[in-house]
UniProtKB/TrEMBL annotation:
Keywords: Signal. It comes from Undibacterium flavidum. The lineage of its organism: Bacteria, Pseudomonadati, Pseudomonadota, Betaproteobacteria, Burkholderiales. Residues 1-31 form the signal peptide. Pfam families: DUF3570. The keyword Signal applies. This is DUF3570 domain-containing protein.
Length: 378
């Protein structure tokens, strides 16, 4: 479901949630100007998932975001989110007894300042989130540079994340640090077509193991790379926009993944928009993943207690595939108010992977997400 090591419910939701409705493609990609209106958005997300014989996680997540123009050439974005999680941790494989009860809450905030020039936008951001056993602080710098004809835009970015990890009931005090790099380009191909290509790379060091799994020892360094290709086409005759995205990911753990995302935003008249979506995901297993149900071993052959060999029986390190189906409906009430609601259904199976190293004994997973939102511009 996600390429992140700490697959918390919040990260899971970020990976699976529906994308927002984007504006229709226009004839040119104008250099971004400073906004002249403020905007406030309130959203509520409810997530539930199940595995066979087990109602697993329920997440309630309200959020608030604000965008405000400042002094003509500046703007400020701010966001707050609160996740309340209850249920059970993921089962290792097929036994319900491998799940454990849990509850948690997360509070997060982010702040981003933008400065606009004639063809350049500079942004600096800071984000912080806290859980009872995990704290994270992130800094970022980004630049968008448009060509003279405004048909090409280059995007550059760097970031740094610093995490502190503890564990309830255990003496554990660990850290994880990561450096992020981004380069991308957006290109207008025609009056109704636009494409974007983005490359990202993360170099991270520290604690990547799951503190709550007895047999989970992962490398203390992880290199992650991803390529994202987006293509949008606007159908002038019906006032609809097709959005097609493809993402390829690989890392030093041996995980590779492919994600294909298809959306179509159709205007229905009277300021209504409907957006059906389909997402296909597949990943290979980490090099150190093993399945005790599949191999009938509690400890893999060759593993030495106290040694340096890496091992994990975490299902999220296995090979699997996922399919998401969703629908979003939005209404522009007037020049100030917009409302929207979306529903998404996610299904995960080990035999849906494109790769060959899947384990048929792995338990399947189903998830549903409902989100409602309200936006006010003034």
């Amino acid at each position: 479901m996600s390429d992140n090591i700490k697959a918390s419910p919040s990260i899971l939701l970020a990976a699976l949630s529906l994308s927002g409705v984007l504006p229709a493609v226009t004839s040119t990609a104008h250099a971004e100007d400073a906004p002249d209106k403020a905007e406030v958005s309130v959203k509520y997300l409810r997530y539930r998932d199940q595995q066979p014989g087990l109602d697993r996680l329920t997440v309630n997540s309200p959020s608030l975001s604000l965008s405000v123009p400042l002094a003509g050439l500046w703007s400020l974005d701010a966001g707050l989110i609160a996740d309340q999680v209850s249920g059970a941790s993921p089962r290792y494989h097929t036994a319900v007894s491998s799940a454990s009860k849990m509850s948690d809450s997360r509070r997060a905030a982010d702040l981003k300042l933008h400065r606009y020039f004639e063809r350049v936008k500079l942004s600096a951001g800071i984000a912080y989130s806290t859980e009872h056993d995990y704290d994270s602080t992130a800094l970022s710098l980004n630049a968008s540079i448009a060509s003279e004809d405004n048909n090409t835009t280059w995007n550059l970015g760097v970031g740094n994340a610093s995490d502190k990890i503890t564990a309830t009931g255990r003496v554990l005090k660990e850290e994880k640090n990561g450096h992020d790099f981004l380069i991308g380009v957006s290109q207008v191909l025609s009056p109704v077509d636009i494409a974007q290509l983005t490359f990202t790379h993360t170099n991270a060091h520290g604690y990547f193991s799951d503190a709550y799994k007895s047999l989970d020892i992962r490398p203390r360094e992880r290199q992650q790379s991803a390529m994202l290709l987006k293509y949008h086409h606007y159908f002038t005759q019906v006032d609809g926009t097709l959005r097609l995205n493809y993402r390829h990911y690989h890392d030093s753990f041996g995980i590779r993944s492919h994600t294909i995302n298809l959306e179509y935003a159709q205007s229905l008249g009277d300021e209504w928009t409907i957006t059906p979506m389909l997402r296909l995901y597949s990943q290979s297993a980490a090099d150190f993943y093993f399945d005790p149900v599949y191999t009938f071993l509690f400890i893999p052959v060759g593993y030495k207690i106290g040694g340096t060999q890496f091992v994990s029986e975490d299902q999220r390190m296995s090979a699997f595939g996922g399919r998401s189906f969703g629908l979003k409906l939005s209404k522009q009430v007037d020049q100030h108010w917009q409302v929207d609601a979306s529903l998404e259904r996610y299904r995960q199976r080990s035999d849906w992977t494109f790769f060959e190293n899947h384990r048929p004994a792995l338990a399947s997973l189903n998830a549903s997400m409902l989100q409602i939102g309200l936006r006010y511009r003034y």
